[in-house]
Write a structure and sequence with these properties.
The chain contains 5 helices and 7 strands. By secondary structure, it is of the alpha/beta class. The longest helix is centred in the middle third of the chain and has 17 residues.
Length: about 170
């Protein structure tokens, strides 16, 4: 299967189930695996590897997200509350998928909404592929060693309970 076909298939899957509810740990990368790194871009255009955020003696919460995702919008208050409560103890990373959005659109959204944590752009879908991301609103929590302890998708995830698994 060509990389282009794989990327297109992954993009269609993300779009197709972006609003479909699913239970935690039903889809995506397996629990207990080491969270993979991979190339991403900062909103300033610098290349950064996701591994720089993982296994650094604190848990990491990663959300695979899009500006157009209704489930992501629904998760926003819970993520803001979790960041306010745990922002010094947990790294919060938002990975903006490149499906139907550009880095400029993500920058404009961030300027208007000021989501806490780091927002990174997955231009080529490499990181989304490494995590077998089933949809936007996909949350992955890794403990301080970088081991995945929670995955879930949808707008009504219990972020507090997910973070407790990593602490």
């Amino acid at each position: 299967m060509t990389d282009l076909f794989k990327s297109a298939r992954r993009a269609m899957a993300i779009v197709a189930i972006a609003t479909a509810p699913a239970a935690a740990q039903d889809l995506g990368i397996a629990l207990g695996e080491q969270a993979p790194g991979g190339p991403l871009e900062t909103l300033a255009g610098q290349t950064v590897d996701l591994s720089a955020y993982l296994g650094k003696q604190q848990p990491t919460l990663i959300e695979f997200w899009a500006t157009w995702c209704p489930n992501c919008k629904q998760l926003e208050p819970a993520l803001r509350a979790a960041h306010a409560k745990h922002g010094k103890a947990v790294r919060f990373v938002t990975v903006a998928v490149s499906v139907n959005q550009s880095v400029e659109r993500v920058k404009a959204w961030q300027a208007a909404n000021k989501m806490p944590g780091d927002i990174l752009y997955d231009r080529k879908g490499t990181v989304s592929g490494a995590y077998d991301v089933p949809a936007t609103s996909y949350i992955v929590v890794a403990d301080k060693t970088g081991k995945i302890v929670y995955t879930g998708v949808g707008g009504t995830q219990n972020i507090e309970a997910a973070l407790k698994k990593a602490m």
